[in-house]
Specification:
about 170 residues, two-stranded antiparallel ribbon, about 30% helix
């Protein structure tokens, strides 16, 4: 029998309006809190800006591991580890390498760059279907909620806590 997490991913990938997939979920219990924002320590911010600069200059996607803690309604990202690109595909780092490397206890997820532009003008500000597939693979491997971000400009990120039941979104400056 499919698990709720698998069904949720299918709903998100197949539903044109993401909000309708979110509204289909039962509300979280009143005692359960989910983070609603991400904060980056200065060293991580510097590392993410460097990752973006390198990615933008080379016109290829880069990936890094991120780690930190969740306190009340905030994810504090305290560690970043850029992964070296491989010849796995044209986007750089293979999904399996990031899944294997970016796990507990030091890391709780990944961040990657989106340098492609919609119609050559606007950046892709959200996770793609392929990104969601990698997030699901990460969750299956580590069996815990993960933190994931996409950098879509030199200073802006879209981040989520993703895992067992709820997608939590946050636009953040890093």
């Amino acid at each position: 029998m499919p698990r709720l997490r698998d069904l949720l991913l299918v709903a998100v990938l197949l539903t044109p309006a993401r909000l309708s997939a979110q509204n289909a979920l039962p509300p979280a219990p009143a005692t359960q809190r989910y983070p609603s924002r991400f904060r980056f320590v200065p060293e991580v911010s510097a590392g993410l800006r460097e990752l973006w600069t390198r990615s933008s200059a080379e016109k290829r996607e880069y990936v890094a591991c991120i780690g930190g803690v969740i306190r009340q309604d905030t994810v504090f990202v305290e560690r970043v580890l850029p992964l070296e690109p491989t010849s796995a595909d044209s986007l750089g780092v293979s999904a399996q390498a990031s899944i294997d490397t970016c796990g507990p206890p030091l890391y709780q997820g990944t961040v990657h760059t989106h340098i492609a532009l919609i119609d050559g003008e606007r950046p892709y500000e959200r996770f793609s279907g392929a990104d969601r597939g990698v997030m699901l693979m990460w969750w299956r491997r580590w069996k815990m909620d993960g933190m994931f971000c996409v950098l879509y400009t030199q200073k802006d990120a879209y981040c989520e806590v993703d895992g067992s039941a709820i997608f939590n979104m946050s636009r953040s400056a890093y």
